[in-house]
Amino acid sequence: MRCGAGRVVVSGSGEAPRLRVKNLNLSPSPPQNTVRIPPSATAYNWIILHPATDFIEKILNCHSNGLECGSVERMPDITISDIHSLNQKEAFEILAQIARVEKKTFPSNETFFFGQELWRKKPNTRVLYATSAPAPGARPVLIAYAVYVRQKGAALLHKVCVIEALRRQGVGQTLMEYMQQRLQKEGCQYIQLWVDKAREPARALYTRTGFRAREEIADYYAPGRTGIRMVLDLECDV
Domains in the chain, please, with CATH? Predict the structure, then answer.
């Protein structure tokens, strides 16, 4: 298993730049600014340092704990954008793809309606999406998306979803961090969300990206399903 690292490049101009996360080729000889992974670890011996330091820590923790690192996947090359940066045809195509993933991933009572009016009539509802090309020159495919609503100095995060095949590879965290940086630049003061207490992977993602639990409400989603309100203060360092 080859474990790769990524770098972040923001391209484009205006209010909805596209974010590209590119994997770096790993060299058999140690390049500059690298961290050494012991040869006995089931991973490449060298990995480029990059902002996603938790990716490196995960590999090092595998070795220090005597675990195999085969479960540490290489984060794919991804491009993040906003449907409002697209023309009508492109936006409707992306929304249709998101709707299919949403229907497949969530129970019917928890699905968000990704209708065409999100592009036409709801400028305060923002839909970010991430795509990845399965091979050089191939058509990019949808791999993740997030939906939030701006309310003056706040943002309410409705949904974050990564396709099942690419979960636990850093895609969700990259999308969340991009959203946070974007909202900070727009003057947003905090982001709020609700999460099912039983969904530990989602809670862990939000905690890693700076969210803190503020409130619990029993039976919030359904009888026996507790909801947790989490908040990220964007006016503090995140």
Answer: 6-64 (no CATH), 78-233 (3.40.630.30)
